[in-house]
Amino acid sequence: xxxxxxxxxxxxxxxxxxxxASSIVLYLYYILNEHALPYCTQxxxxxxxxxxxNTVLSSSYNSIYGLNLDVLAVTYFIVNLGLIFIVAFGxxxxxxKAFKVLFGWRFVGLAIVPYLMxxxxxxxxxxxxxxxxxxxxxxxxxxxxxxxxxxxKNVRTFLGSNPDMVVPSPESLSS
Length: 175
What we know:
Elements (H helix, E strand, L loop, with lengths): L4 H27 L12 E3 L2 E3 L1 H5 L5 E2 L2 E2 H21 L2 H33 L1 E2 L1 H23 L3 H5 L16
Parallel strand pairs: 2-5
Antiparallel strand pairs: 1-2, 3-4
């Protein structure tokens, strides 16, 4: 399938933004051990919440069962991009499966965001700018895919220019 580049960009941009933010954290904070991330080195206050990436990233809440959340974030956004490209350019057989997995994958990302925001806003009372960018990317990303599934009825029609293309309906996602 030949995807419309502008329309494909709409689906890709949030994953690229999230991947960039998570990669910056992973590379600078964990690989280079720079604990003064750009734009997040001051203890700024915003509505009673401190903005300090080091506090969030060095907390015990930044891993689940020994898995670093920033490594998981990079993985999440890479898988998300892969699924988008399979949906956009894959064969019809691959498309239907990838479409279902893409929706489910984004739902998993959405399910984790409330936990992460609770840790930052309520437990630590500190936010990380890069983490917030990742959270927003996941939320907006989920909103986009949900819009295409339930309002536009599918992603493939949105991406392509062939209105006669056979695609799964939202009802088939539950099967």
